[in-house]
Amino acid sequence: QSIDIRKSSKVLRDRIPRVFFGTGWVRHSILELFQEDIARHEIIFSSDVQEDALRMLEEGKIPKLNALLLHNGSIYKWNRPVYGITGGKPHLRIENRLIPSGPTVVDEMANTAFWLGLMKGMPDDFRGLESKMDFDDAKTNFIKAARMGLGAQFRWINHDKLIPSDELITKELIPIAREGLKKAKIDKTDISKYLGIIQERVETQRTGSQWVVDSFSRFKKDVTIDEALVATTAGIYYRQKEGKPVHTWSRGQLKEGGSWVNRYKRIRQIMSTDLFTVREDDLINLVTNIMDWRNFHHIPVENSKGELKGLISSDLLIHHYGSNFDKEISKLTVKDIMIKNPTTVRPDTLTVNALRMMRKNDLKYLLVTEERKLVGIVTEYDFVRICQGLFEELESSSDNT
């Protein structure tokens, strides 16, 4: 649903994306939000609207306002006003995306209790917020929280300096939420249970997003990004089934990604996507240095559109320099010696088929393309790494038996 139809330009101009936090406080009426959206964002969807809303109101009927709903549905504010009809009665509501999705049910319950408690227990000092906090500070707080999680510091009312998130949550927000839940006559045991989860999450600095980032960052040092994603997702799944709050979760393990079938079945799961490439007009001397600096044995050649044009290999360079040691080669370019139309496969190619292709054609590499665009490369090294992982799994399983 993320839609951004802004045009790029060398001339700076403020353009609001269709997915955004907002531009300012509402001062008088919720109509301000609808009016701003209609004025700022052009219509990208349309339909044949039959109803005359004003005439229906004059007749005592309730219009559906389909045109407004359709346009409003193409804008994704963090807090979005919505008009609707329920049980024959029109209403306005605010749709927001404030409660994180778990990662377990008990975490979601804690998040919900925390939020509802804050709303119910909101002190009078927090009312009339538009006169006490600059909107840009609220927006900056939001961005910091999204990017840094519990590592963020915020500008807050009644504070002259930035306040760390852990201090804000434990010393101010949790007490407010506790009083709010008491006002709502929530059982004391439930209050302690769910707000206790929030408290311990802060103390351990372990949130769902932090667990994911830590696991993925650790995994990708040893395996491909795809393998790291599989293992991280599997780790979340197994721990979700246990139902324990995320701050108690153990570290993820690569082996949780399952057997090699889950991790290595298709080329997209093992290919390297962090690619260094060169252009056809690059000098061979430059390419030689790049390959030496990065210890590359193969480097793809692509054009400005990302389309694959050829390949330079270390074997090719050795042959070239050996055959032309007595000639002037400083002006030679990539296109003069590159392998044109190198063998390619698609990302969904079965790994076993790709391996057969490499053996049959005596290749040390395979370039991976999609719609003529280079998306990855697989080399002998990748298969050696896979073999190492398989033998380690076999060794581990034999030790356990």
Concise summary:
The protein is α+β, with helices and mostly antiparallel strands and 401 residues long. The chain is built from 15 helices and twelve strands. The protein has four domains: 19-96, no CATH class; 105-204, no CATH class; 208-258, no CATH class; 269-386, CBS-domain (Roll), CATH 3.10.580.
**The level-1 CATH class of the largest domain:** Alpha Beta
- Give the uncertain stretches in residue-range form: none
**Count of individual beta strands:** 12
- At the fold tier of CATH, the topology name of the largest domain is CBS-domain
**Main sheet overview:** 3 strands, antiparallel
Number of helices: 15
On the 0 to 100 scale, the average pLDDT is 88
- The global form is extended
What's the structural domain tally?
4
**At the fourth CATH level, what is the homologous superfamily of the largest domain?**
CBS-domain
